[in-house]
Specification:
The chain is mostly helical. The chain contains ten helices and no strands. Helix 5 packs antiparallel against helix 7. The chain is globular. The two termini are 28 Å apart.
């Protein structure tokens, strides 16, 4: 199995930092534009970011407890459901629920696209951007969406098609089949965490979104973390 060049040096922490950096960069861009719409959008983005980062960090801490490592290679090589005992598995399930709840907010999708809110503040942070700069913001959103769904697959569903059906594939065929299987899992996660949610709810107000994460999602994540700690 191929290894990442910097494997084992805090992969999950780096991913959390990069996800946060994108939101922070968009907020700074909104403040820098000078538009009142952008300023309001950037303020909303900062409030929302402070709300959902806590449960996201809790999920990462839970996996660090289980594996004694922040390495994605270590986590993906052994499915979490085989590492966790019955009590810890219940905690991991709660962490999965918390992460799925965080996903649409992390990606600024309905019902958590409060910082853009086209009908209220005219795209918010992006109101004054156009051309290549606007394209880069949208491109970063697309990359972040794929990265978030891929992270959830690696953490919770790292099962390979070859192992499930004992196919015995090798070489190029193995990598091609597993790449398609991985993309399929990413698509399923995206449909469940993004598409299903955005078609089921209207946009929340900023105080509603903050309460959801600070109270309900935080409680779910912390209970999951406690179960993982007790089950390790």
């Amino acid at each position: 199995m191929l290894k990442a060049p910097l494997e084992g040096y805090g992969d999950l922490i780096v991913i959390l930092y990069l996800l946060t950096l994108q939101s922070l960069a968009m907020a700074i861009g909104g403040f820098a534009s000078g538009s009142p719409f952008s300023s309001v959008g950037a303020q909303r983005e900062m409030v929302l970011m402070m709300s959902y980062e806590m449960p996201l960090a809790t999920v990462i801490v839970g996996f660090a407890m289980l594996y004694r490592s922040f390495s994605l290679t270590t986590i993906a090589s052994t499915p979490v459901w085989g590492v966790a005992g019955p009590l810890a598995a219940m905690g991991v399930l709660l962490l999965l629920v918390a992460l799925l709840a965080v996903t649409p907010a992390e990606l600024a999708k309905l019902p958590f696209d409060i910082a853009e809110a086209e009908t209220e503040i005219c795209e918010g942070m992006l109101a004054e951007y156009s051309g290549r700069n606007l394209a880069l913001f949208y491109l970063s959103d697309a990359v972040r969406g794929f990265a978030m769904a891929a992270l959830e697959v690696v953490l919770f569903f790292p099962f390979t098609l070859t192992d499930i059906f004992n196919l015995g594939l090798t070489g190029t065929t193995y990598y091609a089949v597993e790449a398609l299987w991985f993309l399929f899992k990413v698509l399923v996660i995206y449909l469940l965490a993004i598409t299903l949610v955005r078609t089921s709810f209207a946009r929340f107000r900023i105080e509603q979104a903050s309460k959801i994460f600070w109270v309900y999602v935080n409680i779910i994540a912390l209970v999951g973390l406690a179960l993982v700690w007790l089950g390790v």
